[in-house]
Structure formats: structure tokens, C-alpha cells
UniProtKB/TrEMBL annotation:
UniProt key word Phosphoprotein: yes
Source lineage: Bacteria, Bacillati, Actinomycetota, Actinomycetes, Propionibacteriales
Name of one Pfam family that matches: Trans_reg_C
CDD domains linked to this entry: trans_reg_C
A GO molecular-function descriptor: phosphorelay response regulator activity
PROSITE patterns: OMPR_PHOB (PS51755)
DNA-binding region: 115-212
Protein name: Transcriptional regulator
Annotated keywords: Activator, DNA-binding, Phosphoprotein, Transcription, Transcription regulation, Two-component regulatory system
Length: 214
């Protein structure tokens, strides 16, 4: 069982997944109070569901402290799209996550595992550091773009339908349509650049396929 520190606006409900897990959650509205208790905290949860700009400031403040407590963003599907790696968070958790997923993510950030990398063709995806490169050049991705690229790279050569991508990347409880997948694929290709965006292939009327080699 872990001791969690949730810092963010007052009055926001705790996600059901965290309510059902046996972890202890201390709630703070002021980042200074949270920092004062880092020595007894296993994981810091930063609530960015309603005030993402303030959440970014909190992440940077907490991660700059000399503490071993990892920082995990608590996000909605809407706010997750604006999060980038320069926030300084170690991982994220959506408010629609199942108890199993929430527990797995919390266990992962507290496990002290070595960095795990996925390598396919010119792409390298570091699952722990939440970084991705193409031909050695870093990609500036949002969390959703990162998760999408990670899932594609992890399944090279496989045709992935829009419904599969929507459920695996956005989650089964996401209510947006499959058009969301197309929009994020377009943004991801733009960031990858014309030299390498062809590795993500469109399969007409079905979905997408990642090819490690072209």
C-alpha cells in the first residue's frame, strides 16, 4: 500500500479507481503543504483536470525538490492533450482509468525499474522516461501522441483499426469518436516529419499500420 499526495483545486472528486484501491491519499490545495510532506509520500498526484496551467507549475515545483517521490498527473481526456514532457511528470493517470490500470501505473512509478525502450526502425520509445526519438532526434509529443506512437511501435506490421486504437490509447470509457484517432495521427505525422512519417501507413477504411522498415 502506498501513501499518495494529491495536490490541486479543492472540491474535485477522487477518481473511483483510487477510491477502490487500498492506498492512503492525503489531499492538499497548496503545493507548499505538499512539499512539506514529501518525506512521507510515495507518489505525488497533481490534479490537472480543471486548471492545467497551474498543474504544470505544481509539477515543476514538486519535481525540482530533492525527493524520491515520483510525480503523476491526474488528467481528463481533454486536459491530457495539452500535457508535454517538459512538465516534469513521471507518468499520468486518467480519471477514467480502471482500478487495475491505476494500480499498475502506481506500482510502475514506485518500482525503480530500469528504463524500457521499444526500438523499431528509426524509432526509439522509452516507456519509463516518456521520450521518443526518430533517427536520434527527439520528438516533442503530448502524452496522448506519445501513447499513440508507443502502441504503434509496439505492434509493427499489424493493422490496427481506429476502434482498437481508441480503446487502447484513449481507454474504453472515452466517449469521443474515431475521428479523434485521425486527428492525432495527422499531428503525430507532422511532428515526425516527411522523411519518416511514411512509417505510419493508412489502411483505407480500416485504420493504420506501423512499418519499421520502408
Amino acid at each position: 500500500m502506498s501513501r499518495l499526495a494529491l495536490v490541486g483545486p479543492a472540491g474535485q472528486p477522487l477518481p473511483e479507481a483510487l477510491e477502490l484501491l487500498p492506498h492512503t491519499t492525503d489531499r492538499y490545495t497548496e503545493v507548499a503543504d505538499c512539499i512539506d510532506h514529501l518525506d512521507v509520500t510515495d507518489v505525488v498526484l497533481v490534479d490537472c483536470r480543471v486548471e492545467p496551467a497551474r498543474a504544470k507549475e505544481i509539477c515543476l515545483q514538486v519535481s525540482s525538490q530533492t525527493s524520491n517521490a515520483p510525480v503523476v498527473l491526474l488528467a481528463s481526456a481533454a486536459t491530457l492533450s495539452v500535457v508535454t514532457r517538459d512538465w516534469g511528470a513521471d507518468d499520468f493517470l486518467t480519471d477514467t482509468a480502471t482500478p487495475l490500470e491505476a494500480d499498475a501505473r502506481l506500482r510502475f512509478v514506485t518500482s525503480g525499474q530500469e528504463s524500457r525502450e521499444l526500438v523499431a526502425g528509426p524509432f526509439t520509445v522509452d516507456e519509463e522516461a516518456y521520450t521518443a526519438t526518430v533517427a536520434g532526434q527527439p520528438l516533442d509529443l503530448t502524452y496522448t501522441e506519445f501513447e499513440l506512437l508507443k502502441f504503434l511501435v509496439a505492434h509493427p506490421g499489424r493493422v490496427l483499426t481506429r476502434d482498437v486504437l481508441l480503446s487502447e490509447v484513449w481507454g474504453y470509457d472515452y466517449y469521443g469518436g474515431t475521428r479523434t484517432v485521425d486527428v492525432h495521427i495527422r499531428r503525430l505525422r507532422a511532428k515526425i516529419g516527411p522523411e519518416y512519417d511514411g512509417h505510419i501507413q493508412t489502411v483505407r477504411s480500416v485504420g493504420y499500420r506501423f512499418q519499421a522498415q520502408r
